[in-house]
Amino acid sequence: MLTTADVAAAEAEELRQSRSWLRGLLVPKVLFGLAIVVFFLLLAFAGPLIDHTSPDTTSAAALRAPSLGHWLGTTQQGQDVLAQVIYGARISMEVGLGAGVLTTLWSVLVGLTGGYIAGVGSELLSMFSNVFLVLPSLPLVVILAAYLPNSGSTGVILVITATGWAWGARVLRAQTLSLRRRDFVEAARATGESSFKIMLYDILPNELAIIAATFLASVVGAILTEASIAFLGLSNVTQWSWGTILYWAQVSGAELARAWWWFVPPGLCIALVGTGLAFINFGIDDVINPRLRSAGPATLTRRDRLRLRLRSRPTAEGARTAADPAAPAEHDHGNERVPVLALRHLSVEYGGNQVPVRAVSDVTLTLHRGEVLGIAGESGSGKSTLARAVTRLLRPPASITGGEMIYTTRSGRQLDITGLSDAELRKFRWEEISIVFQSAMNALNPVLTLGAQMDDVLHAHRPQMKKVERAARTRELLQLVGISPDRAGAYPHELSGGMRQRAMIAMGLALDPEIIVMDEPTTALDVVIQRQVIETIGRLKDRLGFSVIFITHDLSLLIELCDTIAIMYAGQIVELAPAEQLYRHPQHPYSQGLLGSFPTLTGPRRTLTGVPGYPPDLRRRPPGCQFQPRCPQAFDACTEAIPLLTRREDADVACFLYDEATVGDNHG
Amino acid sequence: MRMLARRLFFYLVTAWAAITLNFILPRLMPGNPAQGLIERFNGRLSPGAVHAIEILFGQPHTSLLSQYFSYWGNMLTLNFGTSYAFYPSPVAQVIKQSIFWTLVLIGLCTIIGFVIGTLLGMFVGWRRGGWRDALVPMTTFLSSLPYFWFALMAILVFAVTLGWFPSSGGYGIGVEIGPTWPFISSAIYYGFLPALTVVVASVGGWLLGMRNMMITTLNEDYVLLAEAKGLSRLRVMFTYAGRNAVLPSVAGFAMSLGFVVGGAIVTEIVFNYPGIGTVLFQAAKGQDYPLLEAIFLTITIAVLLANLFADLAYIALDPRTREA
Fold first, then answer.
1. pLDDT digit string (tens) for A621-668?
2. Which has the higher per-residue pLDDT, B225 or A61?
3. For A138-155, what is each residue's pLDDT tens digit?
4. Phi-psi region of B145 (alpha: psi -120 to 50; beta: other; left: phi over 0)
5. What is the rounded average pLDDT of the residues A76-85?
6. Tag placement on chain B: N or C end, fewer CB within 10 Å?
7. What pLDDT sits at residue A20?
8. Between residues A240 and A549, the one the model is more confident about
9. Three-state secondary structure along A98-158?
10. What is the pLDDT of residue B193?
11. Mean pLDDT of all residues in A602-607
């Protein structure tokens, strides 16, 4: 049920969005585009008033190159090209804007109606626009213009509108279809508002950005089409437009006479207006589709490259051996717990233009061979960023800004993952650490078969393997996770959700890696399938002996599955403890809260409490302990300093409650 | 193959719409195009030819419905009437002579432009920053230039100033048309500049579209996973990112194709190329309605066929469309 409060909230959200898109438009490229367009508009409307030379006046000075008298030279009849370009701007801009307005109006009408009404009418309108979209517009324009000879710019505007509206109508229809299902429209309909009013007040304002983009694109299209029509001599050739100038230049063989000044300026004017409008559109595009602004995987700033070069030096000199005194001595009291990955003071920051935001802050953590290490935390706690950092998959603006990640191979060789060069990293990946993502649907390439996606790992890392051997290995891997080997030829969309996730795990095992990072591998699955996947992981781990970093917000799952659990909050580890201990005796108030917010699958019943409040905004961190604003047990010391991880009862806890000095103060 | 069947049906509807548009337009227009046309022939037409024109552009004293049926009869027998601009050649013959040139030139250039533009767009989208970012405003500027302006520039630079290529025509004077090497080499030599013009002018549009899709695709998990798998950079770029990013370009081929073909047709005129564009220009100048309508229909059908091929390519590229 929708309450008025919901509707109001939705409306407020829409308003906020529309305001932010206006702000998003105040960027250099849009301003640059606007400057060009405004210049040409001024030229079109005020130019003839300033330059009094008539574009028609002929003179004996035929085909003169640009000079002080004729800035852009003269035509074959001795007419001034500059005057023609200035006068021509008027018709070109007039046709462009006129056709742009009419085209947009018609597109909005067809698109909005077609998207809003349902059923046969909508389908017919859609078919109508699609037919016009496919019909080649130029020949159609030529026919229409031939039937309406010498009809002047009004005729040209009508012809362009008749042939150029379909693209906008299609885009707007799609947008309307998606808006129609949104809550605030449903709510308006529930109150019995008329369709016309809903379209006008609820849908139209939310399409302004797209309508603006359609309008600008139509203007560009119209100016180009006008130029083509005029160039073909189909409009009134005695009326100056940029296209008419080109028509006369071509008819008089200007290009053969090398009179470049005659046809270069009008062409450049058309292209400049087009570029200006396109730049404004880029700005709108960025607002509609924010992904366009993000950087690609291979995008590195010069600073990043420099740092990577500096980093890679120690490994280039030869990896440290286990005997290296700098290597962490983590042999736990004669116990055979051998560290395989040791994170030391790892920090990750999101750079960008503003102040860098620290998503992972000074994390020190050790994963042992064969161990399952769980990392739990709310969304935004930095746990997924940590997973991406370990696999070196961070994309700009995120980057590792400090610390090291020491990896120990089976032979005891140690290397710092943060310092690997591109080539070293490619070899290291999957061979040593593989990763399983949350949504297998998104993580599998939709256009390749399962087999092909497993095969290319083997192909890249085991070039000596023959095709038959790779195929055999693929089948073996699928069998390992309980998928029939003949599904190797299936595409991701042909598999069920659970199967896809198990296929991902099979893929992760392809090279017998030491570590598998699992980033919320079961979150997108229902409980039964979740169980299957967890059982598969447990069974394979016992059999193959790899280590797992398991990331989830589901603490109860971790308690069942893991040897050790790290609790993350605001980019820091606040508690690191054996699973059993964390379950029986959580020490950090946040861990206590988290445990209280999930029912366990096995184990005694207890009241669910949860953690009230929200994680801090990482751009405005609270003073002292990050959890302190939400902590039921906070006291004065908590706002003064950040507690460090300290050993207590087989666990590491970052909380002043267990710090004798501060607690003593408090209780004293 | 339900998708293919749906597309085929749609193309049939579009072809029907094009033919019907041809039927309606002269009947909607002010004045009497049929009568005007017949008068302009100055009695040079046989009674049969006059009748054909009336069927095509409006028969007096006949119901619209029966006119429509007669019209379809003419369409199905490829009877498009007599050309005014190329009197006394029948329209069908004029088209037959010119369509081959256009199909080869524009067909090849469209494919070459698409491939080059898409590849460039892939590279530009893959790695951002530095000189590659300057490519976007540059290509935007280039793609805002009219095709025929490029043609004028190409003639000025390569034909007139440098003298490397001829400035007009489709083959050398005195060369016999036929499947012989002298003719083919001459046709390639004459076709080079028009081809260059169309390719250069069309590359920008494909490039920008592909770049944007590439950037969107690079954020997909499967690209990240491909990277995590330690695959070579080229493999990630082509098979994971590029292969998926190209799909919307192929799906949107229809819309872009109309634009490219339009531009290419005007390019032919500048080069006085013996293709259908130059014929269209003559027809438009002489208000040769029979020829104009037949050209519109021919180009439409060619574009629809090209779209059908694009659909087949899409089905080959995206397994999700192969569902029963």
1. 888 888 888 888 888 888 888 888 888 878 888 888 887 665 555 443
2. B225
3. 888 888 888 876 667 888
4. beta
5. 80
6. C
7. 58
8. A549
9. HHHHHHHHHHHHHHHHHHHCCCHHHHHHHHHHHHHHHCCHHHHHHHHHHHCCCCHHHHHHH
10. 92
11. 55
Structure tokens, B145: 């230039």
Question: pLDDT, tens digit, for every residue of A284-329?
Answer: 877 776 555 554 444 444 445 445 444 444 443 334 333 343 334 4
A233 neighbourhood in chain B, CB within 8 Å: 284-285
Of A64, A101, A105, nearest to A81 by C-alpha is: A64
Mean pLDDT, residues B138-167 taken together: 88
Beta-sheet strands, E only, within A380-502? 398-408, 414-416, 433-436
Query: Regarding predicted confidence, which is higher, A127 or A599?
Result: A127
User: Contact B153/A144, CB-based, under 8 Å?
Assistant: no
Contact criterion met (CB < 8 Å) for A130 and B10: yes
Under 8 Å CB-to-CB from A236, ≥6 apart: which residues?
A150, A151, A152, A153
Compute the distance between CA of residue A49 and CA of residue A103 in angstroms, rounded to an integer.
Answer: 30
The pLDDT, as a whole number, for residue A83 is 81
Confidence at A22, pLDDT banded by 50, 70, 90: low
Q: Does B254 touch chain A (CB under 8 A)?
A: yes
Indicate the SS3 state at residue A534: helix
**Counting beta carbons within 10 angstroms of the beta carbon of residue B29, is it exposed (0 to 12), middle (13 to 18) or buried (19 or more)?**
middle
Listing DSSP states for A12-66 in one string gives: HHHHHHHHHHHHHT-SHHHHHHHHHHHHHHHHHHHHHHH----SS---S-TTPPS
- Least Cα distance to A127 among B305, B15, B251, B10 occurs for B10
Tally of residues, chain A: 668
Interface test with A, best of B221, B269, B305, B320 (most A CBs within 10 A): B221
Q: Is the pLDDT of residue B32 over 80?
A: no
Closest A-chain CA to B13: A131
User: In this complex, is the C-beta atom of B43 within 8 Å of any C-beta atom belonging to chain A?
Assistant: no
Label residue B196 exposed, middle or buried (CB < 10 Å: 0-12, 13-18, 19+): middle
A83-100 burial code (b ≥16 CB/10 A, e <16): bbbbbbbbbbbbbbbbbb
Length of chain B: 324
Contacts of B257 in chain A (CB under 8 A): 136
Cis omega before residue A397 (within 30°)?
Answer: yes
Neighbours of A657 (CB within 10 A): 19
What is the DSSP secondary structure assignment for residue A346, as one 8-state letter? E
Question: Is the interface score ipTM higher than 0.90?
Answer: no
Position A104 pLDDT exceeds 90: yes
Closest-CA distance, B41 to chain A, in angstroms, reads: 17
**d(C-alpha B80, C-alpha B78), whole Å:** 6
Distance between CA A606 and CA A598 in Å, rounded? 9
Beta carbons of A42 and A219 less than 8 angstroms apart? no
Of A489, A642, A128, nearest to B20 by C-alpha is A128
What residues in B contact A458, CB-CB < 8 Å? none
Closest residue of B to A133, CA-based? Answer: B255
Q: Residue for token digits 């003179």?
A: A59
Least Cα separation, residue B289 to chain A (angstroms): 8
Are A626 and A361 within 8 A, CB to CB?
no
Alpha carbon A155 to chain centroid distance? 44
pLDDT band at A59 (very low <50, low <70, confident <90, very high): confident
The 10 Å CB-count burial string (b at 16+, else e) for B250-273 is bbebbbbbbbbbbbbbbbbbbbbb
The CA angle A237-A238-A243, to the nearest 5 degrees, is 45
Q: What's the predicted TM-score (pTM) here?
A: 0.83
Which pLDDT band holds residue A336 (cuts at 50, 70, 90)? low
Q: What is the pLDDT of residue A334?
A: 43
Q: Give contacts of B221 with chain A, Cβ < 8 Å.
A: 437, 439, 442-443
Work out the minimum CA distance from B272 to partner chain A, whole angstroms.
Answer: 11
